[in-house]
Amino acid sequence: FHGAMDGASKFVRGDAIAGIVITLINIVGGFVIGVLQQGMEMQDALTNYTLLTVGDGLVSQIPALLVSAAAGLLVSRSGSDMKMGAEFAKHLLSSSTPVFIGAVIIFSMGLIPGLPSIPFMTLGLVLGTLAWYFLREEEAAEEEKLADAETTAQEEAAGAPEDVDHLLNLDTIELEVGYGLIPLVDKQQDGTLLGRIRAIRRQFATEMGIIIPPIHIRDNLNLNPAQYRLLIKGVEAAGTELMVNHFLAMDPGGTAQEIEGIDTIEPAFNLPAKWIPQDREEEAKFAGYTVVDNSTVIATHLTEIIRNNAHDLLGRQDVQHLIDNLSKTSPKAVEELIPNLLSLGVVQKVLQNLLRERISIRDLLSIVETLADFAPMGKDPDLLTEYVRQRIAKGMLAPYLQEGKVLQVMTLDRNLEEVLSKNIKHTEHGSYLALDPKLVEEIVQTVAKEVEQLVALNTQPVIMTSPNLRRHLRKLIEPSLPTVFVVSHAEIVDDINLQASGKVSLKNE
Questions:
Q1: Per-residue pLDDT tens for 62-114?
Q2: Beta-strand runs (E) in 349-505
């Protein structure tokens, strides 16, 4: 059968080629006869005989087209059990695309001059309507298929275990803002807060020697529109409410006149301030006020919160990163210390002790070398911290020095020092200060009064005491006075000029 069909196909192909050749001969021959024998004009002869020849050619080619199409259909359906007519209709009407193409072609033929327009256009419209109907059926079937797939996916998801691993990740630092503060973090609305946060991370790297983790910023619809919150490891550390379209004006002292505004408290340092409209910025500056926008308020607050919690932000992986970075330039110092003398955990605790008192750890090489020198004598992190402080004392005290390398310090009354020293208890796990709670409260209140007087004079509060008492006094006042710096006599370098600014003593002495 297939051999016979192949022979028939070759015959049809030859007949089609012969028909084309005959058509060309008829055009040329008709043109010559019309001009030479019948005396017709060249244009008239070409028009008449070309039209007649093309019509005759179409009539002769249509059978060839039908035979070749029928042969193709028979050969291609040899593996199907359906009847020829049913299968032909199935393929022809399975999609709206071929019906639509046929409708366009047939309708276009009705626009050709010389062809009957009404039958062609009518048939084209009928096929177009049929194509539109098929298209609607296809869209409905596709929607049903998508719905079934979604239902199946939901059923499979309901029966499968939910992946909640991503919920275990905890952002180290988060900043949540109300929707009214979103323009501050949107670059398209000229928000500057993102740039300020990048500057904060660079500042801590250069000043404190630590890499602050990326700060995750997100909006929180549960907050008031102008409210923000700062979270450290998922726990709220600070937050306040700002005023949109206002500036914060603070009196640094000695202002020419008081300006009108809404009284408030500056969140970073708890200083009195005023909210003023943006159009009064120049007036406030002219009067001597320090004027900042909301982005600056948030950035300053964030800086202080990070500074106060820097020791909690320094994890072991962060310490390992710092050590790896140091080993690139000083590999021998690192090899001597870790892990031969100290574990990474002890080094972390020493660095955390320094950061807790706002001491920069950027000179990591000096810290590592000091730890390597004193680690054979003991592995108590608190004691090792005291040795490190003495080694880096010059850089540690630099932020507190006044002109002429003057360091103003408060001292403890001798009797008070003796009381504190006698109450230091030593155990196998370290030492601690054991005092009566009432005495602790009295000492803290006395120190607070002295500190308040120094702050009023724009002097940073520094307390000086003996080396064995320093860290215990620091732990004693840290909960109430975290910014008071406590130094020991052993940390005062030779070129520093000490100046007494006060003395801490008990009332009953």
A1: 676 677 667 666 666 555 666 766 666 666 666 778 788 888 888 887 887 76
A2: 406-412, 424-427, 430-433, 462-465, 485-488, 497-504
Phi, psi at 217, each rounded to 5°: -110, 130
Strand partners, 216: 174
Class of domain 314-391: mainly alpha
**Fold of the 173-308 domain:** Glutaredoxin (3.40.30)
| Pairing label, strands 406-412, 497-504 | parallel
CATH superfamily of 397-504: FHIPEP family, domain 4 (3.40.50.12790)
d(CA 99, CA 127): 6
Residue-level length of the chain: 509
- Cβ partners under 8 Å of residue 306, min gap 6: 173, 200, 204, 212, 313
Q: Cis (ω within 30 of 0) for the bond into 339? A: yes
Is there a common fold for 314-391 and 397-504?
no
Which position has the token pair 């803290």? 444
- The 10s digit of each residue's pLDDT in 437-481 is 898 999 999 999 988 888 878 888 999 999 999 999 999 999 999
Q: How far, in Å, are 73, 109, 443, 445, 446 from residue 507 at the CA level?
A: 114, 115, 10, 11, 9
CB 474 within 8 A of CB 486: yes
Residue ranges of the domains in the chain? 1-75, 90-142, 173-308, 314-391, 397-504
